[in-house]
Amino acid sequence: MPWPSRKRGKGAAADKKEPDAKIAKTEEETQDKEEEKSTKPPAGSSKSGWKNWKKTKESDSGGEESKMTYCHWLLKSEPESRLEKGVDVKFSIDDLKAQPNQTTFWDGVRNYQARNFLRAMKLGQQAFFYHSNCKEPGIVGIVKIVKEAYPDHTQFDQKDPHYDSTSRKENPKWSMVDVQFVRMTKRFIPLSEIKAHHLAHKADGGPLKNMMLFTRQRLSIQPLTQEEFDFVLSLEEEKPH
Fold first, then answer.
1. 35: domain range?
2. What span, in angstroms and rounded, lies between the C-alpha atoms of 29 and 223?
3. Which of these, 4, 69, 125, 163, could form a disulfide with 52 (CB 3.0-4.6 Å)?
4. Residue 16 lies in a domain
5. Is the residue at 177 inside a domain?
6. Considering the entire predicted model, what is its pTM?
7. What's the domain count of the chain?
8. Is there a domain that residue 130 lies in?
9. pLDDT tens, the chain, 241 aa long
């Protein structure tokens, strides 16, 4: 019996409290066309933030994946109800905890770069679970990858809001992974607090100076360096500002 669909809502709308988000369209609408053609970083992005990447040309059907050294991730999901083509895409960390074995598939990603990040994930790697598009976005817990990338079945489901009529079963465009709940963070780590550290690190140097949460904030799947992950995780030990 298949798990109930996660009804992905991750990153499909901008975080309401993210001051740098200036685009009203979804990540798929704003980035897919350019990223379908090329894996080059966007204009204005930090060169040092991309220094570990070997960029390759990709085709509509997937192409060769960019090689990277990132070993942790940040996954955005919407904890509040929002209808997308008549389907509620809400999925909070409590919804994940309620799944069988506290595990589910991470479906519905329809952005080429985010998809490539999914395909780069390795078994056992950990990710922050980030509540997005809500009153106070931020990190609420940790999950781990328990199954590496495989075809996302929702791309073939005409009743699913993420159906893609251009994708073929013999050569699927979109992938998903399975994730399992690990634990809640010791406290909620809000976006505003992470951003304050990011700005300080940009000015004076530090592990968050190139964090993709602020350089590519529209992406619902984001890589983290070991230094970024460790620093953000250390914030759970501090008193809220």
1. 27-42+52-237
2. 21
3. 69
4. no
5. yes
6. 0.77
7. 1
8. yes
9. 344 445 454 434 434 444 333 332 334 444 444 444 444 444 444 444 444 444 433 434 344 334 547 899 999 999 999 999 999 999 999 999 999 999 999 999 999 999 999 999 999 999 999 999 999 999 999 999 999 999 999 999 999 999 999 999 999 999 999 999 999 999 999 999 999 999 999 999 999 999 999 999 999 999 999 999 999 999 999 988 7
